[in-house]
Each structure stands twice: as structure tokens, then as C-alpha cells.
Design brief:
mainly alpha; flat; single chain
Length: 79
Amino acid sequence: MVAAALTERFIRPQADRTVARLRSAQQQGQISPDFDLDVAMAILSGPLYFQFLITQEPLTHEYVDRVLEALLVGLTPRS
């Protein structure tokens, strides 16, 4: 019950906003048009949850920047 409420109230809305932002970037040509945005969300959130929940290391700005950089390189349209 608590997990479902947490997901419904906090996790899903944030994930939806993130995917919407990625979709906007995709429509503007900043992200490859064929990249699966749900997969992008999973790739983005996985390392953050792992760092926070499994290793219990702090989520520093530097770490988040590294994760974003790695993801964005993969999302960049290829010429």
C-alpha cells in the first residue's frame, strides 16, 4: 500500500515530467528521433536509484552530471 501510494503520488509524476521533457527535446531535434524515451527514463533513473538505495552513497551533483552526460551522449542524433 505505501509503495503504491509513493509511486502514484511522487515517482510516477516525476517520471512523467522527465519523459515529457525528453519528448520535447526529441521533437526539437536534440535527441535522436528513434530513441525509446521510456528506456531513456530507465537508463537515467537506474544509476540514481542504485547509488542511493544499494550502495547508499550520496547523490552528488557531480555524479548526477556524469550520469546525464553518459545518457545524453547516447541520445544525441547521429549525422
